[in-house]
Amino acid sequence: MAHILVVDDDDGFREGLVETLVDLGHSVEEASSGEQALGILTNAAVPFTCMFLDFRLPGMDGLAILEALQTTVHGPTLPVVMLTGFASSDNTIGAMTLGAFDHLTKPVGRQAIQSLLERIVSSTAAGATSDEPLPKFAAEPASTKPRLLGVSETLREVQKQIGRAASSDATVLLSGETGTGKEVAAHVLHDASKRRDKPFVAVNCAAIPSELLESELFGHVKGAFTGASADRAGCFAAADGGTLLLDEVGDMPLPMQAKLLRVIQERQITPLGSSRVIPVDIRLVAATHRDLKAMVEAGEFREDLLYRLNIIPIELPPLRERLADILPLAEHFLAEVAIRRSRGMRLSSPAQRLLLGYAWPGNVRELRNAIERAGALAPGPSITAEDLGFLNAKPNDGQPLLNASFFDMSLPGAVEAVERAMISHALRLADNNRADAARRLGISRQTLYAKLAALKLE
């Protein structure tokens, strides 16, 4: 049974709402003004479960009461349902910004009230016992540095490999699916090495046009190409003495791979447009989500470069193979959201089950984004399964992998249809960022451009 405060100056509506709530089995107190409501809240011996608050009231209006609630004993964590007969974008946004649980337009049906109260009770149940931040990894001290957090055996093995690799300057190749934390692992490796006080420089080879990549890596002199108005040091020079991460090295064009191989062998760079040779002292770390050995067989990656990069291989496991880490990571990310929202937040039991049952194709990055989204939009202190419902809102859930019509097509036609659907889907997920879409598809940007043109998806 919930303990509810109803605040409305319309006697008829207020009495009708109170009657409905009592009929549903709840205890109700009522007020006809904001001032009266604040007095009831301040002197309440038993905390209220929630409050139904009219937007237009004599004296203080609903938004003013929402602001004043922050100074009452029970107010800061009290779920408030705003009621109005004249919904507008301003009063809706204003109410939600001030922390209202929901914003409803009069009249409100019995079923809607019952469903809303069920949501309120479920969202507050897990977070009602404490306002303290969620516990983080027990053995992890607070830190602003990048960390590979996890207690699963698979991640513990990665942590051990990084620790061993940190004692040398050998080149490291980090592999793993998108979102598994390859750049974080590179940061951790650098921080654990003797180069920790020197620069850490990361460059995404897939995000830089091929014609600019050489300048980005090796630098250029004034006049080397149109637009080169001044000398510029590249990433190799910027990382001198420290660590250079070549992220998505599998997307590097073949001509650039040959130049990189020479630099790795000689530890010297020549800026674009110059004959001056500059020695560099770096720890090289490469990262990729692609299968470089398969690319070598397909003629898309140099075999000799792979040998040079693959001195110490470390593979980051996907999150679905780290089940023991999912909930601790989710709680860690939620604790960060709770600090920003200045309120205690919890994961409800149904939400935890949902997180454990989800496949996490985007791995740790997707988990973090999901928790940040749910934590920012959740109306109550507890993250419920409904708050995470977007994880299961996949358009093809429960559908067969192949439509029956595929079997009536010719093989080239079916292949074209699959390519068209997969490319379109990847572009939607990547917000039309073609470099990101290519990474999701496991192909190079050049291959994606060629397929876009062939399929007339431009």
UniProtKB/TrEMBL annotation:
Gene3D superfamilies: 1.10.8.60, 3.40.50.2300, Homeodomain-like (1.10.10.60), P-loop containing nucleotide triphosphate hydrolases (3.40.50.300)
Domain Response regulatory intervals: 3-121
Keyword annotations from UniProtKB, A to Z: ATP-binding, DNA-binding, Nucleotide-binding, Phosphoprotein, Transcription, Transcription regulation
Keyword Protein biosynthesis in record: no
Zinc keyword on record: no
Record's signal peptide: none
Alphabetized InterPro entries for the sequence: AAA+_ATPase (IPR003593), AAA_lid_NorR (IPR058031), CheY-like_superfamily (IPR011006), Homeodomain-like_sf (IPR009057), HTH_Fis (IPR002197), P-loop_NTPase (IPR027417), Sig_transdc_resp-reg_receiver (IPR001789), Sigma_54_int (IPR002078)
GO MF terms, alphabetically ordered: ATP binding; sequence-specific DNA binding
One annotated GO biological process: regulation of DNA-templated transcription
Positions of the Sigma-54 factor interaction domain: 148-376
PROSITE patterns: RESPONSE_REGULATORY (PS50110), SIGMA54_INTERACT_2 (PS00676), SIGMA54_INTERACT_3 (PS00688), SIGMA54_INTERACT_4 (PS50045)
Residues modified to 4-aspartylphosphate: D54
Domain of life, source organism: Bacteria
Protein name: Two component, sigma54 specific, transcriptional regulator, Fis family
